[in-house]
């Protein structure tokens, strides 16, 4: 009864994760083909996670339902790797996103963002031209700043902005263009009224991108914690299914125990001593 229940449960769970991998792979392929999304850095992890879940779930489903021992071995090994990888990613995500946040602007509803408030790893990554230029082009193509072009001075006083609008579509509020710019925020001199320039090269724009990434990353980290707990639960049931598959094949927990005429296998005497010890105890 226990054998049937554990194999049925692991088979059902892996069938669900097998089906769940299909939209994950589809989302990764859609992002790879899309030219308007700014989340291109997520397409590779999405595809990798989707295909890994697909392969692992398929191996676990076959191993549990058809008692294929090698498939369960593969399933348990990769599941252990996924659990360790998710735990590492989660810890890393919390560490690098622990810095940052908004800066209040007196008399304004919107907030501003400063690059120096974020972790060194994120600042180094966002300052790399190879990484930043595709993001800059994506923000420019997304028409993020078009929504505030027609704002009046009153709108700037009473309306809120997204991090990208605040950091990329306007100069810092502290800028005073009636005075010399040398002593002011360097972003003040980077600002340009040209719609293709604006403040896309400003540190405030990079900080706004990091703020969006920080918020998304914290959400993903919370999801990762849930996934780690779920994977540990599935892994535990998978271990039971593996034990049952070995026991159903040979009657021994650790595989076949053939005894040859002249040289018994190494675990024959171990199992015999364990059997005799049980009889002595009971």
Calculate the mean pLDDT score and round it: 77
Strand adjacency order, main sheet: 1-2
Helix percent reads 55-70%
What is the H/E order?
Answer: HHHEEHHHHHHH
Over the alpha carbons, how many angstroms does the gyration radius reach? 29 Å
How many strands? 2
Taking the alpha carbons of the first and last residues, their distance comes to: 25 Å
> Which structural class do you get from the secondary structure elements?
mainly alpha
> So what's the overall shape?
elongated
> Could you name the ranges where pLDDT drops below 50 across 5 or more consecutive residues?
252-262
- Fraction in beta strands: under 5%
Instruction: Work out the helix count.
Output: 10
Oligomer: single chain
Biggest sheet record: 2 strands, antiparallel
What's the gist of this structure?
It contains ten helices and two strands; from the N terminus they run αααββααααααα.
Q: How is the secondary structure organized here?
A:
Blueprint: H1 2-33, H2 43-66, H3 69-96, E1 103-104, E2 111-112, H4 120-127, H5 129-141, H6 153-158, H7 163-168, H8 186-190, H9 203-250, H10 268-281
Antiparallel strand pairs: 1-2
Architecture overview:
By secondary structure, the chain is an all-alpha fold. 65% of the residues lie in helices and 1% in strands. It contains ten helices and two strands. The chain has helices at 2-33, 43-66, 69-96, 120-127, 129-141, 153-158, 163-168, 186-190, 203-250, 268-281, and strands spanning 103-104, 111-112. It has a two-stranded antiparallel sheet with strand order 1-2. It is elongated, with a radius of gyration of 29 Å. It starts with a helix and ends with a helix. Mean pLDDT is 77; it is low at 252-262.
């Amino acid at each position: 009864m226990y054998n049937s229940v554990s194999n049925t449960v692991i088979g059902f769970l892996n069938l669900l994760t097998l089906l769940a991998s299909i939209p994950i792979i589809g989302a990764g392929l859609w992002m790879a083909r899309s030219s308007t999304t700014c989340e291109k850095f997520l397409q590779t992890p999405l595809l990798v996670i989707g295909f890994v879940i697909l392969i692992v779930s398929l191996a676990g489903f076959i191993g549990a339902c058809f008692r294929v021992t090698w498939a369960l071995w593969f399933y348990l090994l990769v599941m252990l790797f996924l659990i360790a990888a998710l735990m590492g990613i989660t810890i890393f995500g919390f560490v690098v996103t622990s810095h940052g946040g908004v800066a209040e602007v007196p008399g304004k509803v919107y907030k501003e963002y400063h690059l120096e408030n974020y972790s060194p790893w994120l600042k180094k990554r966002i300052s790399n031209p190879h990484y930043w230029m595709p993001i800059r082009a994506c923000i420019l193509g997304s028409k993020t700043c078009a929504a505030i072009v027609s704002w009046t001075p009153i709108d700037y006083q009473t309306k809120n902005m997204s991090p990208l609008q605040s950091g990329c579509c306007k100069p810092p509020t502290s800028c005073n263009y009636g005075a010399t710019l040398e002593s002011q925020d360097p972003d003040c001199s980077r600002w340009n009224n040209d719609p293709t320039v604006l403040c896309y090269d400003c540190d405030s724009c990079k900080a706004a991108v990091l703020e969006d990434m920080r918020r998304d990353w914290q959400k993903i980290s919370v999801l990762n914690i849930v996934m780690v707990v779920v994977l540990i639960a599935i892994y535990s049931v998978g271990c039971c299914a593996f034990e049952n598959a070995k026991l159903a094949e040979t009657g021994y927990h650790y595989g076949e125990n053939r005894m040859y005429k002249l040289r018994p296998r190494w675990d024959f005497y171990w199992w015999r001593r364990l059997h005799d010890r049980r009889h002595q105890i009971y």
